[in-house]
Amino acid sequence: MVHAPVRHGEPAMQHEAGGVLGEQIDGKSALEQIGKHAIDLIVTDINMPELDGLGLLAALKVMGNATPVIVVTAYGSDESAVAALNQGAIDYLVRPLCLDRVESVVRKALARQ
């Protein structure tokens, strides 16, 4: 079963995950839930209120949380991709999402556990 805090529900991610997905409106709320629950996979947007996706990645690193993180954005750039990967994201996806790519990334992320 996959639990993944997500800013906005991603139908492609939900299809591939085949499990229960939690959704949080911002990075701060997501971080609180991550601290309370065993989570197999985190999918986060870069642009979120309170705490953005890069801030969430940094906080997870400080916490020593090794849950795989996939970053999704509609506003992809080389700089944000490099920043996300340097902060520990397993992958970086730009919307619109391709279902085949999502399936591959989710499988890769879950196989690392």
Outline the structure in words.
- The chain is an alpha/beta fold and 113 residues long.
- It has one domain (11-97): Response regulator (Rossmann fold).
- Helices cover 44% and strands 12% of the residues.
- The protein has 5 helices and 3 strands.
- It has a 3-stranded parallel sheet with strand order 1-2-3, sandwiched between helices.
- Strand 2, helix 4 and strand 3 (91-94) form a beta-alpha-beta unit.
- Helix 1 crosses helix 5 (99-111) and helix 2 (27-36) runs parallel beside helix 3 (53-63).
- The longest helix has 13 residues, at 99-111.
- Mean pLDDT is 84; it is low at 1-8.
- This is Response regulator.
- Keywords: DNA-binding, Phosphoprotein, Transcription, Transcription regulation, Two-component regulatory system.
- InterPro entries: CheY-like_superfamily, Sig_transdc_resp-reg_receiver, WalR-like.
What descriptive keywords fit this protein?
alpha/beta; three-stranded parallel sheet; Rossmann fold; disordered N terminus; 113 residues; 5 helices
